[in-house]
User: Fold this.
Amino acid sequence: MTEAAGTRLVRLRVPAVSDRLRLIRSVVRDAAVISGCSDGCAEDIVIAVNEACMNVLEHGYRERQDGDLILDLAVSGGELVVEIVDFAPPVDPQVLRPRPIEELRPGGLGTHFMHECMDRVVFLTPPEGAGNRLRMVKRIA
Amino acid sequence: METEVREEHGLAVAAFTGDIDFNSSPHARRVLLDLVEKKGDVVVDMSSVDYIDSSGVASLIEAYQSAKTSGARFGLVAVSGAALRVLQLAHLEKVFQIYDSVADAAARAS
Assistant:
């Protein structure tokens, strides 16, 4: 994270490939619990982070297997702050808008999950050389 | 993720173990669509599913819609924990038929 953001829990840099998602979920779950989250709260954070990382793989890097993503978790002012930075082409922030959930169709659920599970979901200016920077925040105390 | 396909109480059952996520959901999708096409009435045993993400849910929706189109039944068995939370987030707990067990699903059919 580029500015002071409370107490850092973990920084994880992983290849943006699908078989790393399980590792990411495991790290996020443990970090959330360590920060004082209830099991349900931790699970919601895991859901949101997993979906955000999936978006990086599917829509950011697409077929590429050589990109990384950087995951930062920190606790600040009673909130757990997650930031995900990738090096894929910049995405249109409009992709973060959730679709009507009443439509029964396979796609587009991930963004809905992110908004339902977290209190704030926003794209920020990425660091120099990076493609996208997503911040998600959830009050945990 | 491990997969088992079996017949139980006269129903075709797809049982997944582990996580149905972006890495494994393409396989889950193929298994379910194939089963719906070949066997008709299908239930998915979720009792050993630890986690399902939106891609896994998408696979369930596709299979459900395929079954519905062909007039077959499609249901879920023993959904709990994180998997149930995800279905609730997608408002699907009232769309899918969810049963306590395969026996329960079979009993409801007869």
Observations:
- The domain at 7-139 of chain A is CATH 3.30.565.10 (Heat Shock Protein 90).
- DSSP finds three helices and five strands in chain A.
